[in-house]
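To fix ideas at the outset, we first show an illustrative case, written as a sequence plus integers encoding its fold:
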Amino acid sequence: MKTDVLVIGAGAAGMAAAIAAAKNGLKVIVAERDEVTGGILNQCIHNGFGLHYFKEELTGPEYAERFRERLSEYTDAIQVLTDCHVLKLNRDKKALLVSPRGVFELETKAVVYAAGARERPFGSLMIPGDRPSGIFTAGVAQRLMNIDNRKIGNRALIVGSGDIGMIMARRLTLEGTEVVGVVERLPYPGGLLRNVIQCLKDFDIPLYLSSTVVEVRGKERLEEVVVANVDEHFKPIPGTEKIFKVDTLVLSVGLIPQVEMLDGLVSLDARTRGIACSSTGQSSCEWIFAAGNCTAIFDLVDYVTREGERAGEYAPRYVVGERFTRNVPIVPGENVMLTFPNFYSDVDDLTLYVRCRKPMEKAVLKVGNFERVFEDLIPSEMIVVRVPKQKLMGLDRIEVTLAEV
């Protein structure tokens, strides 16, 4: 079996990449391990998607359906293989796929890797105590409730004020579960401001900042969770412990890019732990392009979609012989925690994603010879800016800084 472009993953990034590649006249095969396309969007039944891309507010399933409809317009160019897992990707551009239909090999000319991210598990938190039932990651809890229609508990505490954690606080409340609070170790919320308002304040759910879980207790089912305040080094402060009597603990403690399949094939970014990419979506292995949360964790699905389209545009250009040779490193500087992409290829303007290191009322973003003022910055919300190609000419290193005003 042969194709021009193999897209691994049919979430927002993968579907967008497949459509963009098909528009370039190439044959595309999409491999998706789930039974349907859409990825995590299918279980995100809340609204708030599509505000940037479609200029209207959609639920996750509605957003996914928009792209399924677009995929159906390219049936001659795009073949979607659902319930199909890519077991291995080799250096000779051959992939081993497995599905209920059997195991088979696929030869490709380029790959767009869009496998998304996985949740940080409970074990990684090193929380002492018992190991009772009733402890869920946010994504698992979301799937159980929104896909399987199950109530996961009666009284819950949530760890982590990222967007998923806050959205789950609201979702649990709407399903009749009492949410006693959201615990966040940072001194500020970890998600978008709109979710702080819509998911916590509007439902009178307390947010405990500078706090962390120090112990879980329970026999067969969770009974108590002990929370303590933390100092500036995130160390629990003795004497500040508070006991919450709950039967459910939901963990929203971060996502990790899903990159294990490409181990040894591509370089990773030390900060994001995702695939290091250029502004064309190209990895260190020239025929592998990547997009979405497998590269860096994005705030919005709209951003993931745009990056999928970018990889889906440049992968076909690579297939027909174009090479992107000038890759200038992009590095975080003063007050900058994260930048994406990792390298700039001067074939186009640079769309840059930045996270600040601390909350800032007003700051000047400097990228090469480009400057722009931003206000009310917080680490949980990405800065997205398009830097004209002319502002980056002649640079052999691009440092991104945020100077307080």
User: Anything to note?
Assistant: Residues 1-119+254-324 form a domain with the FAD/NAD(P)-binding domain fold (CATH 3.50.50.60). The longest strand covers residues 211-218. The chain has three domains: 1-119+254-324, 121-253, 326-405.
